[in-house]
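Quick one, tokens below:
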């Protein structure tokens, strides 16, 4: 047998060390992984609970079909954003819902938190010229 034939035969039986072995994820598990990712679970948590390597889970969730579905969901989410703003404006203007207004103001940072109020109160009391003033 020639050296060329031996070389060809051994290269066919030995795996290339530069290539990583690919694992096959069964379709039901792949679908479950994608669903868990879409519902907001982290890749690390999915990998741990599905008994899969994180790189395998990343490969599943970064597949074109999963990413296209996520883009579609985001588009639908942003499409209802204008409706949500309209609903809040209507409720504030027509329903005069003070609690909703307060919650909106809190979320946008216009209402100081209890901690911020405490810091403001104590900062004002420690300014020069405020000695002896109580609250």
């Amino acid at each position: 047998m020639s050296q060329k034939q031996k070389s060809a035969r051994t290269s066919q039986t030995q795996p290339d060390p530069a290539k990583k072995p690919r694992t096959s994820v069964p379709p039901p598990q792949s679908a479950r992984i994608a669903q868990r990712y879409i519902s907001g679970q982290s890749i690390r948590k999915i990998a741990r609970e599905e008994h899969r390597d994180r790189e395998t889970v990343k490969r599943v969730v970064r597949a074109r079909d999963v990413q296209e579905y996520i883009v579609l969901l985001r588009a639908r989410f942003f499409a209802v954003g204008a409706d949500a703003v309209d609903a809040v404006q209507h409720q504030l203007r027509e329903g005069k819902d003070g609690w909703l207004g307060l919650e909106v103001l809190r979320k946008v940072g216009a209402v100081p938190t209890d901690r911020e109020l405490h810091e403001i109160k104590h900062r004002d009391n420690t300014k020069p010229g405020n000695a002896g003033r109580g609250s």
